[in-house]
């Protein structure tokens, strides 16, 4: 029986185990969206993960959605990430950069040169955003023109090339959680009636074109895609997600991607299983639970539901999580007050691990 502690060949990238660190926003970038020494330390500490997937990294200036998030669209950013990847590789780890264009989830005060957030349609999200200077109401985004959509696809491909130049083992495209790719997929945020919207086939086109462009630029074996069918986060409404995600997986299946990362933000296990049957490659699962993915949840690997399981908060609080899972604990309790900014590493009062049990 395959377990979470067994190695796996991820399309040519050898992973020591099947435990991934999920992508999580940290807001710790320096001036100009560069990775800092704290970012280097943070990821190197967690290099025992089979795969680290970084926080969302914007592929362009206008793709930024939160304060102090990093980018991969300038030479300075590429150089700063090289220090991160070198440190992770020196510790024996593997690391993919998550490319995340926030789309309408952002605010003009975060952007230079009078830029405004963009989206498939000019639909303002409900709610408010923390901008660093306080909470601000979301604004109505600029509707991307056809040429701007194509330029955005090209931006993803260029950022993917930058990621490889920075030493990453691959990239994950963020098509989940209500950000730009997800905004094209969802019927309440994509009101277009052109080639990029309307029918289910048209709504998946942007996601498919981004995946194809990135795979052509760096190789499908170094390209993953994250989705979260039915996830209402960031004011998304997908009442009937099955058809659009089945169509999406059907289109990307022939490409031979490194993996499909499914985030079960709602009770969609039946759809997860259906997509797994349709996708012949590696499936990474961030499972739906009553709280953060916990110590006992890695049995989804034993049961064949997924090939890799990704942990979020538990990995922040326990940098050597694979060893602790194998030993059965002890586990530090995640402390959200340490998750963002400052000099916090993501854990407090770190408990010792009894290595005799590991």
Question: What order do the helices and strands come in, and which of them pair?
Answer:
Elements: E1 8-10, E2 13-15, E3 19-21, H1 37-45, E4 51-57, H2 75-90, E5 95-99, E6 118-119, E7 128-130, E8 135-137, E9 142-143, H3 146-165, E10 170-175, H4 180-185, H5 200-203, H6 205-218, E11 223-227, H7 242-252, E12 259-263, H8 269-278, E13 282-286, H9 299-302, E14 308-311, H10 313-317, H11 321-327
Parallel strand pairs: 3-4, 3-14, 4-5, 5-10, 6-9, 10-11, 11-12, 12-13, 13-14
Antiparallel strand pairs: 1-2, 7-8
Helix pairs in contact: 1-2, 3-6, 7-8
Question: What does it look like?
Answer:
With 358 residues, the chain is an alpha/beta fold. 30% of the residues lie in helices and 16% in strands. The strands form four sheets. The chain has an eight-stranded parallel beta barrel. A two-stranded antiparallel ribbon has the order 1-2. The model has no long low-confidence stretch (mean pLDDT 94).
Would you report the number of β strands? 14
**Overall SS class:** alpha/beta
Distance between the termini: 19 Å
Main sheet: strand order: 3-4-5-10-11-12-13-14
Oligomer: single chain
N-to-C SSE series?
EEEHEHEEEEEHEHHHEHEHEHEHH
Beta-strand percentage?
A: 15-25%
Q: Helix content range of the residues, please?
A: 25-40%
Question: Unreliable segments (pLDDT under 50, ≥5 consecutive)?
Answer: none
């Amino acid at each position: 029986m395959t377990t979470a502690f067994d190695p796996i060949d991820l399309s040519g990238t050898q992973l020591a185990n099947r435990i991934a660190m999920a992508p999580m926003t940290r807001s710790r970038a320096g001036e100009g969206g560069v990775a800092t020494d704290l970012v280097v330390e943070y990821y190197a500490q967690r290099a025992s993960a089979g795969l680290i997937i970084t926080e969302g990294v914007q592929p362009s200036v206008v793709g930024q959605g939160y304060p102090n998030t990093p980018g991969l669209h300038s030479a300075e950013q590429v150089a700063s990430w090289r220090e991160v990847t070198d440190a992770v590789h020196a510790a024996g780890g593997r690391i993919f950069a998550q490319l995340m264009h926030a789309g309408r989830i952002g605010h003009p005060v975060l952007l230079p040169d009078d830029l405004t957030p963009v989206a498939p349609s000019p639909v303002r999200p409900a709610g408010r955003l923390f901008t660093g200077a306080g909470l601000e109401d979301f604004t109505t985004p600029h509707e991307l023109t056809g040429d701007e959509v194509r330029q955005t696809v090209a931006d993803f491909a260029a950022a993917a090339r930058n990621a490889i130049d920075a030493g990453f083992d691959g990239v994950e495209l963020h098509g989940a959680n209500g950000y730009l790719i997800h905004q094209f997929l969802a019927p309440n945020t994509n009101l277009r009636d052109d080639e990029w919207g309307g029918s289910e086939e048209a709504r998946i086109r942007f996601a498919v074109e981004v995946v194809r462009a990135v795979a052509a630029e760096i190789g499908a074996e170094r390209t993953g895609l994250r989705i979260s069918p039915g996830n209402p986060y960031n004011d998304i409404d997908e009442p009937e997600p099955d058809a659009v995600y089945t169509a999406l997986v059907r289109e990307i299946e022939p490409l031979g991607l490194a993996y499909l990362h499914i985030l079960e933000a709602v009770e969609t296990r039946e759809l997860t299983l259906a997509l797994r049957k349709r996708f012949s490659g590696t499936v990474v699962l961030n499972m739906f639970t009553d709280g953060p993915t916990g110590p006992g949840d890695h049995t989804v690997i034993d049961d064949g539901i997924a090939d890799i399981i990704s942990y979020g908060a538990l990995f922040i609080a326990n940098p050597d999580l694979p060893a602790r899972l194998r030993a059965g604990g002890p586990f530090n309790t995640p402390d959200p007050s340490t998750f963002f900014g400052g000099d916090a590493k993501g854990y407090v009062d770190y408990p010792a691990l009894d290595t005799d049990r590991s």
